[in-house]
Write a sequence for this structure.
């Protein structure tokens, strides 16, 4: 059973956000598990404007492709170059080394608590 | 509809498998990581539960005549202990299934069709051999199948017992034998669907969990990895092997699928599909099955259109980012005029035209 990490915030489209400024964004362990081994990550680049609820990249595994939705509106500050070179980081450590990008936020989209996200995905906070 | 499960379902759950619906069967998609499972088969050995595959026996004095009438291949020259890849055709000459036929005895043969097609194949064999002196027995519900695939597969089989060690040493590719285990005949064949060396073992349902457990408790200095259908698909695609439902279907003829050579027009039997295909023998099919690779990173996927000069000239039937080659590989059908190896085409991937090049499969060979 993949777990939802406490202390983070979540989107219905399976991203997590932390409380830092700029905010750091990644995909959840649940999403990484559903997607399978990620072999190609296309991420927004520093300076790109992103909009909450809109597609900002894609993650490709051997079996499928998933669009990456941005949970916030703002400007991308940093992209995780390590993940671009080594997409397997997303599966190995989705809440840590597998983070995707950071955003200087002007507006947040709809945010879920860990409990709400766990309920949506039928998983548990742990 | 309730999904069917194999006798190994509990073993898969214990290993933490993620399951998927495959043709009505609840089968392991992966246990841990499909990439790890894929690499295990390329580098060491992977174990697959393939109990959803069909097992249809055909036996009797007219067995060869029956096979030659029901299927596209010629079985009159196949010796005991041999296996042969073949297709079953519709009256229109399109592909109803692809299957392997094993000759187990003088007039005893085993057909292994795809899971979803087993009932249709069994039914068609019965209908097509009416009046012949033979019996058809669909034993799919009673038998289970485990695939042992990879460069270390023979080491695993050899460790299962004395008779297995002998089989591992003596069976060459596409050969089959039977081994008596606890009063039951197990079928051991050197066949597979991964592009690696490998074996397939068929046992009565009651015996398969014991075999599975024995395999994973072997201490032979080789890492033995359980593998799901996700890696099975990426392995077969790298090896350029067609999958029924993707490359092969009742919409495609063996000529389109590049399998004209396995249709025997020399045999005397008036096999189903012959009348439709005979006139096409000297023609170039409108579309043909080809392989594609790309130097960019996005994989083409089933359903993506192949485009040349702004015109749609074909469609992708299977595509993945190849774990072994680290680049996209795909199979698809393309108009014969554009089918030459090294032709540059575009594939429409989510609205972007990306460059691919026509490449002769297999993309990977051991």
């Amino acid at each position: 059973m993949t777990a939802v990490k406490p202390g983070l915030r979540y989107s219905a489209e399976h991203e997590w956000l932390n409380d830092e400024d700029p905010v750091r964004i990644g995909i959840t362990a649940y999403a990484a598990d559903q997607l399978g081994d990620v072999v190609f990550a296309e991420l927004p680049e520093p300076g790109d404007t992103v909009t909450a609820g809109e597609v900002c990249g894609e993650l490709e595994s051997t079996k499928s492709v998933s669009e990456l939705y941005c949970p916030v509106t703002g400007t991308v500050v940093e992209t995780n170059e390590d993940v671009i070179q080594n997409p397997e980081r997303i599966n190995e450590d989705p809440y840590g080394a597998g983070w995707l990008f950071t955003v200087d936020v002007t507006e947040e989209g709809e945010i879920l608590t860990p409990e709400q996200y766990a309920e949506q995905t039928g998983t548990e906070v742990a | 509809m309730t999904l069917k499960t194999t006798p190994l379902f509990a073993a898969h759950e214990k290993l933490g498998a993620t399951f998927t619906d495959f043709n009505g069967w609840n089968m392991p998609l992966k246990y841990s990581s499909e990439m790890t499972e894929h690499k295990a088969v390329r580098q060491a050995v992977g174990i697959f539960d393939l109990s959803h595959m069909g097992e249809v026996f055909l036996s009797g004095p007219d067995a060869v005549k029956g096979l030659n009438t029901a299927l596209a291949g010629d079985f009159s020259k196949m010796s005991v202990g041999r296996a042969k890849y073949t297709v079953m055709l519709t009256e229109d000459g399109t592909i109803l299934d692809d299957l392997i036929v094993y000759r187990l005895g003088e007039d005893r043969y085993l057909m292994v069709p795809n899971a979803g097609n087993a009932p249709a194949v069994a039914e068609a064999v019965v209908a097509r051999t009416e009046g012949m002196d033979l019996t058809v027995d669909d034993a799919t519900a009673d038998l289970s199948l485990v695939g042992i695939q990879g460069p270390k597969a023979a080491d695993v089989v050899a460790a299962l017992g004395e008779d297995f060690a002998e089989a591992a040493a003596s069976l060459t590719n596409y050969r089959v034998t039977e081994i008596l285990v606890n009063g039951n005949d197990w079928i051991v064949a050197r066949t597979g669907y991964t592009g690696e060396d490998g074996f397939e073992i068929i046992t009565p349902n009651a015996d398969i969990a014991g075999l599975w457990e024995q395999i994973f408790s072997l201490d032979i200095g080789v890492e033995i990895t359980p593998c799901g259908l996700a890696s099975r698909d990426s392995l077969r695609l790298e090896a350029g092997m067609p999958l029924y439902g993707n490359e092969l279907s009742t919409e495609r003829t063996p000529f389109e699928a590049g399998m004209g050579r396995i249709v025997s027009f020399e045999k005397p039997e008036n096999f189903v599909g012959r009348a439709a295909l005979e006139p096409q023998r000297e023609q170039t099919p409108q579309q043909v099955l080809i392989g594609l690779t790309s130097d960019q990173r996005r994989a083409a996927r089933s359903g993506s259109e192949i485009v040349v000069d702004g015109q749609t000239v074909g469609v992708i039937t299977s595509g993945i980012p190849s774990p072994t080659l680290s680049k996209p590989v795909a199979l698809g059908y393309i108009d014969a005029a554009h089918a030459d190896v090294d032709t540059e085409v575009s594939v429409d991937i989510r609205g972007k035209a990306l460059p691919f090049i026509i490449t002769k499969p297999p993309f990977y060979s051991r």
